[in-house]
């Protein structure tokens, strides 16, 4: 009798991220009039590659807000939020006020949603073009895809900090263990072809090979759904690659 494969989680609960160590939601604060905030401190959140900036600002009373840090942010720096603000590192303004070619981060998908695009360490979103007739802006995401968003959406001027953290080699398995543990990721992951036939559909054989097509039917039982599940096509894509533009 075969065993429950790794894909079925061995009957254990799924690896959920531990929210105990989360500091606060990192979203752009709302503002109707120009506001000047002060960087109170720069924080590290467990499981997040980019540092966070704790802002302190005053409208009718004092408020605290947490946003994703950009390169060049320092403690005590003044961050200006509004429409008519200088295009300085860390300032927050609407996309319609940002010139074409500017690198921004924490770009909002829908106006006033707090920022959805360009939030990982070292990432940035480039402003490509503005359409004043439709009040929309075309931006290039870190993946290279160009996307059209509302020009009323807000963004932070600058590149997200923490971009060089992946350049340091891990060197040993112990560091990888703690890296994935902080992110609640199951590690290490054993390849199916390295297992025995009783443990995985790809296991067994005198050398490591699947031994049969890796495509699996959509209607197969859960214990067989490994590999290319309900694949429409397989193999390398051929022909010229076109740049994808999502509306």
From TrEMBL:
Molecular function terms, GO-annotated: RNA binding; structural constituent of ribosome
Domain Large ribosomal subunit protein uL2 RNA-binding: 11-81
Domain Large ribosomal subunit protein uL2 C-terminal: 87-222
PROSITE patterns: RIBOSOMAL_L2
GO cellular component: cytosolic large ribosomal subunit
Top-level taxonomic group: Eukaryota
GO biological process: cytoplasmic translation
SUPFAM superfamilies (UniProt xref): Nucleic acid-binding proteins, Translation proteins SH3-like domain
Keyword Glycosyltransferase: no
Pfam families per record: Ribosomal_L2_C
Record bears the keyword Protein transport: no
Record's keyword terms, sorted: Ribonucleoprotein, Ribosomal protein
UniProt family annotation: Belongs to the universal ribosomal protein uL2 family.
PANTHER family: LARGE RIBOSOMAL SUBUNIT PROTEIN UL2 (PTHR13691:SF16), RIBOSOMAL PROTEIN L2 (PTHR13691)
Designated name of the protein: Ribosomal protein L8
Organism: Hamiltosporidium magnivora
